[in-house]
C-alpha cells in the first residue's frame, strides 16, 4: 500500500467502468441474458446479471474493478497502476461473480498492455482513466458481454436509477473478509450542485470537478467501498445498460454522502482511438442515447477515478493521505 499526500481532505479508493460491442459481429452491448430481479439496497448479484464486470488481479493480491468494453479491452482507473507494473503480471478475470473457486464459466486472461491517459495526474487525480488490452480476444458468453457506451452526450438526469457493483468491503474500515459474491447496490444520480454541497464546505475551489457525476443511496446506508475501485456505474435505458460513471471517491462507506464517479462519455474519443486501432477490438456505439447529464456544466477532460474513504479526516484535515489500494 502506497500513500500520496494531497492538499484535499479525501482518501483514495479503488472502484470502477464500461464496455462496447462490435456491430454485426458481437452480441448487442448492455443486454445480459440473465433476467434481472434487482431490488433497492445492497445485495448479492446473480450469475450473469453484470456480464461486463471484470476483476483485475495485480501483484501482491491487490485488485481493481473494471468493465469489458470490447472483446479485448477493459476500462478501469489509472490509479490502479500507480507504481511500475509489467502488464503480463496483471490478470483480467471475466465471467466471475464469485472471487473464490473455479467457475467453469470464468475466463482468466493475461494482460498485453496498459494505456494510462497521457494527462493523468496522480496528485490532483485528473484524467484518472486507463485502458487494459487483453492478450487475446475473449469469446462472448452468457456471463461475458460488453456494456454499452453512448455515442453522444446524456439523458441520464438527476433521479435516474443506476447500479454500482464490485467486490469491495461491506463496511467502512472493516476487518471482515471481502465478499465472495459480487455485490450490487441501486444508486440515484444527483446534480453536481447538490453533490458539491456535501463536499466543498471549507475548501477553496471545488473538490467535485466539472466532468464528474455523483450518485447516492437515498436511504444513505449503502455506497461503494474500499476494493470497489475501477468498477462500473451503469444505468438502464431502452432495454440496455450504459456505462455512465466509474467510481472514484466517496465519504466513508454508507455514511450518507454521495459517491463520486467519472463521467465516462467525456473520454469516448480517447477510448475509441485505442480500441478502434485493434482489429479484434472494434466497437459499436449506440447513437440514439444522449449522455447529457451535465448539460448545465462544461464537460472537460479532467476526470478522476478514486474513492474517498476516511469519513473523519476528509472534511476536517487541511492535508490528507490518499491510500492506494
UniProtKB/TrEMBL annotation:
It comes from the Eukaryota. PROSITE patterns: TRYPSIN_DOM (PS50240). SMART domains: Tryp_SPc (SM00020). Residues 39-276 form the Peptidase S1 domain. GO terms for molecular function: serine-type endopeptidase activity; serine-type peptidase activity. Keywords: Disulfide bond, Signal. One of its GO terms (biological process) is proteolysis. GO terms for cellular component: plasma membrane. This is Chymotrypsin-like protease CTRL-1. It comes from Xenopus laevis. The gene is LOC108703884.
Amino acid at each position: 500500500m502506497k500513500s500520496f499526500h494531497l492538499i484535499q481532505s479525501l482518501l483514495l479508493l479503488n472502484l470502477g467502468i464500461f464496455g462496447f460491442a462490435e456491430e454485426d459481429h458481437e452480441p448487442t452491448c448492455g443486454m445480459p441474458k440473465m433476467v434481472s430481479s434487482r431490488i433497492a439496497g445492497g445485495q448479492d448479484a446473480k450469475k450473469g446479471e453484470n456480464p461486463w464486470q471484470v476483476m483485475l488481479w495485480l501483484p501482491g493480491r491487490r485488485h481493481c474493478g473494471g468493465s469489458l468494453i470490447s472483446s479485448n479491452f477493459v476500462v478501469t482507473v489509472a490509479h490502479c497502476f500507480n507504481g511500475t507494473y509489467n502488464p503480463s503480471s496483471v490478470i483480467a478475470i471475466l465471467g466471475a461473480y464469485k472471487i473464490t473457486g473455479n467457475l467453469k464459466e470464468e475466463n482468466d486472461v493475461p494482460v498485453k498492455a496498459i494505456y494510462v491517459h497521457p494527462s493523468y495526474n496522480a496528485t490532483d487525480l485528473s484524467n484518472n482513466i486507463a485502458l487494459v488490452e487483453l492478450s487475446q480476444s475473449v469469446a462472448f458468453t452468457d456471463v461475458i458481454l460488453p456494456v454499452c457506451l453512448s455515442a453522444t452526450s446524456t439523458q441520464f438526469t438527476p433521479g435516474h436509477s443506476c447500479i454500482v457493483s464490485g467486490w469491495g468491503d461491506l463496511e467502512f474500515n472493516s476487518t471482515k473478509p471481502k465478499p465472495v459474491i459480487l455485490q450490487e447496490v441501486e444508486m440515484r444520480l444527483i446534480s453536481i450542485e447538490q453533490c458539491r454541497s456535501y463536499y466543498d464546505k471549507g475548501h477553496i475551489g471545488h473538490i467535485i470537478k466539472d466532468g464528474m457525476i455523483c450518485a447516492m443511496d437515498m436511504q444513505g446506508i449503502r455506497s461503494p467501498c474500499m476494493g470497489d475501485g475501477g468498477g462500473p456505474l451503469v444505468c438502464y435505458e431502452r432495454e440496455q445498460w450504459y456505462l455512465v460513471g466509474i467510481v472514484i471517491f466517496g465519504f466513508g462507506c454508507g455514511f450518507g454522502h454521495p459517491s463520486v464517479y467519472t463521467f465516462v462519455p467525456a473520454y469516448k474519443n480517447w477510448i475509441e482511438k485505442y480500441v478502434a486501432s485493434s482489429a479484434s477490438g472494434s466497437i459499436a456505439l449506440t447513437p440514439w442515447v444522449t449522455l447529457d447529464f451535465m448539460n448545465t456544466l462544461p464537460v472537460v477532460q479532467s476526470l478522476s477515478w478514486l474513492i474517498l474513504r476516511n469519513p473523519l479526516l476528509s472534511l476536517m484535515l487541511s492535508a490528507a493521505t490518499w491510500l492506494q489500494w
